[in-house]
């Protein structure tokens, strides 16, 4: 990289001060990128150089558009990686600038469409998360040991999160004072900011559920009743 015409000219000066500056210049230009990026680009250039050196019709440097387009095709087919293709373009463009040459690859129309082609061809299809259904929820609760307090806590978290559309970060902030069971219904309140603000007037009621709904899913036995269930909630969601 540093034996191109511009660097040969820089290295040809005989004045002691110019010689000192010429010796320090390579380290300066290499610092234009983070060390990790420089190493990554040099590895990418070495991959290109090794491939081109094995082809009698190609030259390693300077890099020409037609031969580099063929290299990108080879790289995309062999690695199945969009990142490898994009990295190769960025690396060779960086090397061209480092060598004092005009950077022509990243702006070239053919190189652009080759990169775009592999971006689409090698793109991984998006896999949307399947929504949790009532049946899934029943199976989850059925697999939990409801004879232990930790099992009751886990089941409570699952059902409350499902019924009120809560993320774990939101439900993990619930405290005993945020849940009321009165008149056969459960009332859950959350802060609009996701945490306790100290101002009850800022809280919004998000959920009203019949207590029998929770009893049906096994949070408490039918013969125990609301008071036992309230006691469990007091224990699990007690204020700290």
UniProtKB/TrEMBL annotation:
Gene3D superfamilies: 1.10.150.130, Intergrase catalytic core (1.10.443.10). Transmembrane segments: none annotated. The keyword Heme does not apply. InterPro entries: DNA_brk_join_enz, Integrase-like_cat_sf, Integrase_recombinase_N, Phage_Integrase-like_Recomb. One of its GO terms (biological process) is DNA recombination. SUPFAM superfamilies: DNA breaking-rejoining enzymes, lambda integrase-like, N-terminal domain. Keywords: DNA recombination, DNA-binding. It comes from the Eukaryota. This is Core-binding (CB) domain-containing protein. It comes from Amphimedon queenslandica.
